[in-house]
Amino acid sequence: EIVMTQSPATLSVSPGERATLSCRASQSVSSHLAWYQQKPGQAPRLLIYGASTRATGIPARFSGSGSGTEFTLTISSLQSEDFAVYFCQQYKDWPLYTFGQGTKLEL
Amino acid sequence: EVQLVESGGGLIQPGGSLRLSCAASGLIVSNTYMSWVRQAPGKGLEWVSLIHGGGGTYYADSVKGRFTISRDDSENTIYLQMNSLRADDTAVYYCARAFSLVAPFEYWGQGNLVTVSS
A-chain residues within 8 Å CB-CB of B22? Predict the structure, then answer.
């Protein structure tokens, strides 16, 4: 099983600031990496796939980078609606899809 | 517009059985890759099971032998039959769709809470 490790667990930021979230895979997942946003009481929403491609309707302030074992999600200028939990997921090792434990973005 | 609507959750005693349903609209479940993903209270996401267009099925080790995924093409619905339920199966269960095996989950249902407790 590929273990996904996210850091930090919690990130305290202010609106308008830049946020950088990290995700590390225990072995290479190439670019088969997705990022999801989850708000309380809601299902996850796909933000980024292929490590760097924004999903349909996702604002340009969200960007992803990395390949192999190290990945980053950057939110360039935080809006109030961006405060949520973010998960990374690898889908290289199908069907044993695995997720990181999440990073909570808080004020 | 794609919609996935889960139902069938609730409170069940340890050792009991429950069947979850996921009714799909805007996509055809027999032509795609449908999974169940769960989230224990306050925890992260765990992939549980997948059924693909050819009918093949896959399971996480934590549920293998206890859970069964299936689908009804006439109803455009997938199911998760859960037997021998344990306290650590308590979670919100989501159905989700990927367009291939090597793809992210692009559509999710709203989730359905299963609580296993005496």
Answer: none
Is B101's CB within 8 Å of A95's CB? yes
Interface mutation vs chain A, best among B4, B45, B49, most A CBs within 10 Å: B45
Q: What 8-state DSSP symbol labels residue A55? A: P
Q: How many degrees, rounded to 5, is the angle at CA B109 between CA B23 and CA B53? A: 55
Q: What is the pLDDT of residues A49-72, one digit of tens each?
A: 999 999 999 999 999 999 999 999
Torsion of CA A78, A81, A83, A86, to 10 degrees: -100
Question: Omega before A40 cis (within 30°)?
Answer: no
pLDDT recorded at residue A107? 84
B50 → chain A, closest CA residue: A95
Instruction: Report the 10 Å Cβ neighbour count for B21.
Output: 17
pLDDT for B37: 98
Identify whether the C-beta of residue B47 lies closer than 8 Å to the C-beta of residue B60: yes
Of B91, B107, B93, B89, nearest to B33 by C-alpha is: B107
Q: How far apart are CA A73 and CA A69, in angstroms?
A: 14
Counts for chain A of helices (H) and strands (E), in that order? 0, 11
Contact A98 B47 (CB under 8 A): yes
